[in-house]
Amino acid sequence: MKRLLLSSVAALSLIMITAQAEGPKCGGGMMNGKKMQKMHKKRMGSPFLIKHGLPHLTKMLVKSWDDPKLALTADQKAKLLEVRKTTISGVKRLKPEVMKLRKEIIEASNAGIKAAELKSKVDKLADLEAEATMVHLNCIDSTKAILTKAQYDYLMQKRKAHMQNKMSKMKQKGMMKCAAGKCGGKQ
């Protein structure tokens, strides 16, 4: 059952990525080619099963390393560097395999290979993406165990403000993709 669910998620992820390549449209606004390529490359570059929504805590911490409001101790910094090292090495090990397999599946599908013949590759892709996602989730757990609740809450507030700012900028530039009828644009 687990493998079937992972296979379904991987296949759905592949379909969504292919559909997203057609380009975000909202309110009649279209992105230019370079922005589209950058967004597509960013989506395709993620080795994770869950591509959005989970915080990348070690990346956030690097940006806030010496923030006096965060106030990391020397002991915390040493432990956090170890978590970062473990996480990055795990993701770097898996990412090339994920990218290669994803490309093979896309090329095979575009060449007319039937879905049934691609099933074993999709299963393998799902397993690799699930493994990468577990590396990410373990990073989150380990980081949370090192930080105090106040430090973690501060990071999450910074993340929320960053995401709101990012979304606001995307809306202003007409880059937001939304459901038909939700913003007045046609899809």
Distance between the termini: 35 Å
The protein's oligomeric status is: single chain
Computed CA radius of gyration, to the nearest angstrom = 19 Å
Strand order of the largest sheet: 1-2
Shape: flat
Order of helices and strands: HEEHHHHH
Summarize it.
By secondary structure, this protein is mostly helical.
How would you describe what is shown here?
The structure is a single chain. With 187 residues, the chain is mainly α. The protein has a domain at 54-157. It is built from six helices and two strands; from the N terminus they run αββααααα. The model is unreliable at 4-30 (pLDDT under 50).
Secondary structure layout:
Blueprint: H1 2-20, E1 25-26, E2 29-30, H2 33-44, H3 57-63, H4 74-110, H5 115-146, H6 149-172
Antiparallel strand pairs: 1-2
